[in-house]
Amino acid sequence: MDRLLKRCHIKNRLVKECLAEFLGVYILILFGCGSVAQVTTSQNTKGEYLSINLGFALGTTFGIYVSKGVSGAHLNPAVSLSLCFLGRFSWTRLPFYVVSQVFGAFLAAATVALQYYDAIFQYSGGEFTVSGATATAGIFSTYPADYLSLWGGIVDQVIGTAALLVCVLALGDVRNTPAPAGLEPVLVGAVVLVIGISMGSNSGYAINPARDLGPRVFSWIAGWGVEVFRAGGGWWWVPLVATCVGGLVGSLIYELVIAVHHPLPDMTKEVNMDGVQEENSEKPKEIPTAWQQVAL
Amino acid sequence: MDRLLKRCHIKNRLVKECLAEFLGVYILILFGCGSVAQVTTSQNTKGEYLSINLGFALGTTFGIYVSKGVSGAHLNPAVSLSLCFLGRFSWTRLPFYVVSQVFGAFLAAATVALQYYDAIFQYSGGEFTVSGATATAGIFSTYPADYLSLWGGIVDQVIGTAALLVCVLALGDVRNTPAPAGLEPVLVGAVVLVIGISMGSNSGYAINPARDLGPRVFSWIAGWGVEVFRAGGGWWWVPLVATCVGGLVGSLIYELVIAVHHPLPDMTKEVNMDGVQEENSEKPKEIPTAWQQVAL
Amino acid sequence: MDRLLKRCHIKNRLVKECLAEFLGVYILILFGCGSVAQVTTSQNTKGEYLSINLGFALGTTFGIYVSKGVSGAHLNPAVSLSLCFLGRFSWTRLPFYVVSQVFGAFLAAATVALQYYDAIFQYSGGEFTVSGATATAGIFSTYPADYLSLWGGIVDQVIGTAALLVCVLALGDVRNTPAPAGLEPVLVGAVVLVIGISMGSNSGYAINPARDLGPRVFSWIAGWGVEVFRAGGGWWWVPLVATCVGGLVGSLIYELVIAVHHPLPDMTKEVNMDGVQEENSEKPKEIPTAWQQVAL
Amino acid sequence: MDRLLKRCHIKNRLVKECLAEFLGVYILILFGCGSVAQVTTSQNTKGEYLSINLGFALGTTFGIYVSKGVSGAHLNPAVSLSLCFLGRFSWTRLPFYVVSQVFGAFLAAATVALQYYDAIFQYSGGEFTVSGATATAGIFSTYPADYLSLWGGIVDQVIGTAALLVCVLALGDVRNTPAPAGLEPVLVGAVVLVIGISMGSNSGYAINPARDLGPRVFSWIAGWGVEVFRAGGGWWWVPLVATCVGGLVGSLIYELVIAVHHPLPDMTKEVNMDGVQEENSEKPKEIPTAWQQVAL
Known about the structure:
Transmembrane segments (chains A, B, C, D): 20-37, 49-66, 96-117, 150-174, 186-207, 236-260
Helix content of chain A: 55-70%
Low-confidence stretches of chain A: 266-296
Shape of chain A: globular
CATH superfamily of chain A: Glycerol uptake facilitator protein
Radius of gyration of chain A: 20 Å
Number of helices of chain A: 13
Order of helices and strands of chain A: HHHHHHHHHHHHH
Strand content of chain A: under 5%
Largest sheet of chain A: none
CATH architecture of chain A: Up-down Bundle
Largest interface: C-D, 68 and 58 residues
Main location (chains A, B, C, D): membrane
GO cellular component, one term (chains A, B, C, D): basolateral plasma membrane
Number of strands of chain A: 0
CATH topology of chain A: Glycerol uptake facilitator protein
GO molecular function (chains A, B, C, D): glycerol channel activity; urea transmembrane transporter activity; water channel activity
Family (chains A, B, C, D): Belongs to the MIP/aquaporin (TC 1.A.8) family.
Oligomer: homotetramer
């Protein structure tokens, strides 16, 4: 068996990375959207809003565990794009990562639909609707609350994704208080948890274009129809655009308020208080910027 | 006292391992089924669905802490079987592990029944039933939701157990982002938590043949009768068969998408980013595959 | 300031340890009983049963952080007693530890009563009762559910405390899968959490004689009267006696099923997989038994 | 991009620290008050009291990750003041830290108001009130429960902040059981969680003058008016004064009961059981007191 498997060995690094990003986002959405499906179709008897927050948080955690050693576990086009802007990820790889991420989310949405087919059918009476008492489109992608204005929604997603990037960059910044080796996935999951707890009610905290687009396309194809793009006054593009803007805003905030002020390279030794991390990672001699070690 | 205890020392490794698997599953089910008993008999006043998810998750965590250093803490025949298929656990030990696991689950179910005897009696009015308003068989083993078709149930268990194996293999893969030494039990518990949160409502996320069979046999003997096998259209075999299939599917997915593409052995040093793990475990010089270090 | 403080330096080791046990249990009960007070007096609007479980769990965690480096953080007479029976703690120190633990719990109960005085007064209308719709004695100590027989209660506490000891001994067993250095308090807290989730509804999971006796004596003095000893058919002695029995049972189970079968000392190196722990603790050359390193 | 950013490099250490304290408190309040806004405006459908506890806890955690490596992450004037009293932080820096903390909280409150503008408007019908059925001032700062007397409120805040300091000092005390390197932020967050669970119902557990004052000033300016200072019988000054008193009380308790009794410096080696921590931090040769290494 082991030998058979080894024949499938792929050497191309980009292909490996795309596979890892694909599986990472797949796991993220499988658990995330799965928890929404469970809460929705059980009518809050087998879970509550906090379960959904935990589903996406732990989905993120295990999505990262599955992929981080191979691809750096961006799992989010807004993250990949921010790293490109900051010059820490190559623009040429960006489209490959993004396509893999969206495709992973799409396939995971299909898996959730398969696993919850009976439940969704019974809950909705076979009517796959985007709004109304037994709407089920929200299992897959995000929709704004009735009260939310378009600008309110854009601001909501910009702030949410900016908060994500500030925290994630801090967790990976070896000159600040980095997460312990091997626990980064748990802590990034905790960031997603707290964003869901504190910024989830306006529009469902997409904070990730792939998380929203992949499942939305699936629900469009799978029977919810073109209404998934029309609902909320054509909401669908906000989680794609505003999250990318927010990612950049958050990266700039962390860089300008914290990272650029770190002591210069030759003083690194004095400042860095986490000696273990120092020894274990093969950091380049230049200033190690957050995310740099995993995301070339 | 210490001397008296030392007289009980057993040298046979397989016996030790079976004892460890037995106690591990015992702890898992004691806490897991105990939490269902608490929520059921207190009629949701002393817990909620999330408590049950936490009960099985932390049950798994401490089941692993109790046994991992001795037996590798499979605690699940679907895990043991998957490792055999992948050539990482010996077929000859498999039946011993499985019997120990099922027996641990059986005895734990008996303990839960003992601890909750008064509560179950009062809640059910002394009628031990499998269905109906005061059904209590669900304390011990899983039953499908009314709406679930047989194929839906099989798909549900295959997906759930596959997700378990993908995550667990990633957590143990030293060439990806392995869990920190000593925290693997917590993270595997977190996998069980998120599966319960996102895949629990269809059929109670058995994802473990021993977890389901042991307590089901106990409830059959202890007064719930043969109905425990008849209920849900003869549901009982699904958590046994579908979970094993799912375990294999998940193992193959992780191997094919991630593990087989890891750089070859002589490049290991360059790739592995977790130096601590490197030093502390006596890994063989050959490629260390996930689970290999604990499971022979 | 620093100089002034240093004048209070005490050299006697036993006194230091007693102070640490005192403060540890104080923190445990302050958070634990505090959470019951919050849920009770807010009538479940500012918390739920799970909050109480978390309150005692995190109370245990921080009680241990506050004391472990000094006294080993037993925080529980049933733990101290079990260690004496196993020959790992001195009988002569036992009474000092127990008195400190009970006194810490007593004073913490008084603090909770002080902090929640207005709330308890408003909730109960000034009537401090042990039973009835606005009973508040349950804030301080445990009482059995109406349906629970005396033997049922004894069995409940024996099983609960046995489960505690099995898990705690496993977490400290360097030849199994020990908790990472510095995270033992979190994991012992998690044991208390899962016991509360899975064994809390019968009689409130005392699993600790000091946790129950100290606050009960306080509530007797503070206005709830002698009824705190009479309620539940004279329940008060069960959390004292059954927990000690349970502690011993659990210790024996872990020793007989797991610990005594560990390879003999000269083989330790081969077996122990956690090299870090090895280096950091000054283990004696003899077989290191669980708890031994902290509890002499 | 990287070059452009590096031009903004600031060398003055105090300015850096103030920026870090600012961003740390900003993150704390953004998540903390955000979770209150979510629970309030969704009328408990997208969260519950436990969500608010988690929001402030994880807000604290990531506020610390964002700032600890630069400023020591006090994030709380009561903490800074206590350290000054104990001679571990300089009085001259105190006002700069406090102003940065309050300003961070103010700006975060403004961000929450921006993000939840539509939601608050819809929930309150456009009436920004401090009390009544659709009061929304509680999103920003704390108000006492109706039953709470002034002295009860003072006692509540003194006990809460004292508990915070006892636990935080223990977590940083290298001669006790210090939190593992890199996980201090998580554990301090857990302290805030358990305080919210066990001491939150009386007056909303401010336990931090900056957390309360900054958002209160914002709500005063932003439309809730001078009533935010008048409500609760002029409650506003209690979270400022009582928390500072409580911080000092807690520091003294930990010092007097635990820290001063640690063995003298030359015996440090024998006592300290956490060798890893030893090696990784450049501790001065004198006795390392809690917080000293980060908060000079």
